[in-house]
Design a protein that fits this description.
2 domains; single chain; about 30% helix; 5-stranded mixed sheet; 5 helices; about 170 residues; alpha+beta
């Protein structure tokens, strides 16, 4: 049994109780995915599974057999930062940086949801396939990712710039 992590096939642990978060950090030495609350409430452990954002602290590694998981480390291309990482730097979208990997992975998954027309709680027209990424829409969609430093304005600005330049 294996899972694809950042483009590499990885054997799953024999213990079916190992969380995806523990597999990444403790077994594969990928420290970018952070341990936050370990209860799915903070978003620090967010990674992408087949392009969709998930909380790795709530996921068992064996649930992702045969699937593709991307961590913050997997977003780099030939050693270069992802464009969203650059936007976070340019807009001061972090202070301590602890939540930043989860924020970035969540933002990438969230933008894919918007592109697919998946509505949120504040989406005005539920029948529309085109969703405007307003400040309120973005904040609602990112509400599961907490930043104890309060860098939310920079985070929103970084994601907004990235979204606008990715069209």
């Amino acid at each position: 049994m294996s899972v694809n992590i950042n483009g590499l096939s990885v054997d799953l642990p024999s213990d079916a109780r190992v969380s995806l978060l523990d597999l990444l950090r403790d077994h594969l030495d990928l420290p970018g995915t952070k341990v936050g609350c370990n209860q799915g409430a903070c978003g620090a452990c967010t990674v992408l599974a087949d392009g969709e954002r998930i909380l790795s602290c709530l996921a068992l590694a064996v649930q992702y057999e045969g699937r593709s998981v991307t961590t913050i480390e997997g977003l780099t291309v030939e050693g270069s930062l992802h464009r969203l990482q650059h936007a976070f730097i340019e807009h001061d979208g972090f202070q301590c940086g602890y939540c930043t990997p989860g924020q970035i992975c969540s933002a990438i998954g969230m933008l894919r949801e918007v592109q697919r027309g998946v509505p949120s709680l504040v989406t005005e027209d539920l029948s529309s396939r085109s969703i405007a990424l307003t400040r309120d829409e973005l904040r609602e969609r990112m509400s599961g990712n907490l930043c104890r430093c309060g860098a939310y304005n920079g985070i929103v600005e970084a994601i907004t710039e990235f979204a606008e330049t990715s069209k």
